[in-house]
């Protein structure tokens, strides 16, 4: 490539960017506490670290803020952090040994966290802050134990973008404090659904901390508490039961968003499959010995990005809507998020799978941009966006979610193949930057230190980047290389060579200030229930990557006597490491390949590691597996960039006052709207005074009382927070009146918390509520 010279304008821009960056780095350094230590986070014995000095949460406990002082947003190390946490004794549910099946426990708990003043996690779009709530986020836990209680496994599906390493380590820490060795790193899987509309801020590696605009201890603690509570509930509710498995295709809800990458895979391999996405849904049906429903786990490959990057409402996207529909159907008479039946729609090998089935089109011209670089003739890659089947993103979310719900419901009803056999689990921590991969009997390759390629900055057709980078870049650009080199230093020749043909935009594996930018130590894990193997994948496998891993693990089991194993890919588990493409897809360097951070042989390394786990389970040699190097747990992280400020009500008003009442009368299909004097909803993430921001209530004349018909977990309600100046804000509650609404008298209530601080006194958080005048819903 010929050497490029810079124009005077480009030289000036480079100088300006470097100066601006230097100022930014100087300011950020004031926000970072860079003297923090890195500690090994033990999961058995030794030193246990918690992000707050509070005792471990027990069932039913909540994380609350003191009324006399605010808590620091940074993670600080308590003076007793190096002491071994006490192990409290938890009564075991009674175990009987005279039945065929498993002990089964299911539990669900809220883990929503902040719904304002925090980035939404997934699109990495600056300015996409949460400004309200469409649906609540839940942790759904499933515990399976052998009849004699000797072995058990835990699978938890969480309505968040992905499980961070920090989140998993803290959950394991507190589980050990409460349950001893009952729930451990090897038999507990934490999996994120991958909604792109959940709060960020719960990570410890610098790339994700920057994307989150800081670490939010408020959200982190709420997530940890919710996950633990769901496991506590499942543990308490364990009862004898049976598990059945079923499989079936779901049509019309997916496309491959990188088909040109998929076509790089060998034609002979592609010919074995009828589609460039995995259409099969795997469903586990859980019932008690009387046949009464307990719960469902579904694995299906689809990105929860029906809600696009213009959204500002916290929600669980299409997979969460599927859970909502099934749980509402099974838990009749309960409000959303309540009732005994638990339905998890878990993630799978969704890396290159989009629900936006109308495909990519140039939003300025309407023409297709389904090309190798996802670019438009006018406007480039920023104009190339895929859309879903609905009239808007809300409609698309419902259409895709309902299709998944319908198919899961059918598979659940017809499930007849019982899962039987022992439970087992295997886990290792692995340094993914230094895995020797055997390509054949004579040749090896190695994984790389983490790095992100140019096409990472391009984004995808589901959410484009903001600087007009394009997908499919196999060469760098001197302009951006110069900016990177000036700010972060140059990537080493070793790293550049290891990642070829990826042109490196960010050499994250060589950056360690204030903390490492990406993880080196990664979890690999398998749990088995009889003939079912659940592989816990620490990232996003593409379609063909998932197929290769499933096939390899199944073959490994078979070679050691465990025939006909069903292997499922469970995505976004335990620690997040971006994407994993095949070696061939890596050569095309679209977004997914540029985000395969450990280099071209990443998939081969994972296949090798998971085969090793499968062999250990099949040969009963799990005890001989090395634990591997333990991951770090960083004690001090960047504070959120959005500060806490005092809430204020307009003169002559108080919090919760109605500014705009509902109309006197509505018909089914219309939207009732009420505007209240509001306060920052993030205050409520630390306070459990109210379990919802809103209720819609119907007056019952027979009992002369108001009955709640909807809350903020209901799909037909929306809560918007409008941030004003100097602590002023409004809250808008919408009720999209469904066809099922009964005629009658209704009202809307708003529940919140305001931050108050008098001079020379610490801040306090106070609860308040507001109630609209009554209005009538009539039939058409």
Automatic annotation (TrEMBL):
Domain Neutral/alkaline non-lysosomal ceramidase N-terminal: 102-608
One Pfam short name: Ceramidse_alk_C
Membrane-spanning segments: 12-33
Entry's Gene Ontology cellular component terms: caveola; extracellular region; extracellular space; mitochondrion
Names of the cofactor(s): Zn(2+)
MF annotations from Gene Ontology: metal ion binding; N-acylsphingosine amidohydrolase activity
Enzyme class label: hydrolase
InterPro entries for the chain: Ceramidase_alk, NCDase_C_sf, NEUT/ALK_ceramidase_C, NEUT/ALK_ceramidase_N
Keyword field: Hydrolase, Lipid metabolism, Membrane, Metal-binding, Sphingolipid metabolism, Transmembrane, Transmembrane helix, Zinc
Binding site for Zn(2+): 194, 303, 540, 579
Catalysed reactions, as listed in the record: an N-acylsphing-4-enine + H2O = sphing-4-enine + a fatty acid
Low complexity: compositionally biased ranges: 57-90
Domain of life: Eukaryota
Family, as annotated: Belongs to the neutral ceramidase family.
Protein name: Neutral ceramidase
Organism: Macaca mulatta (Rhesus macaque)
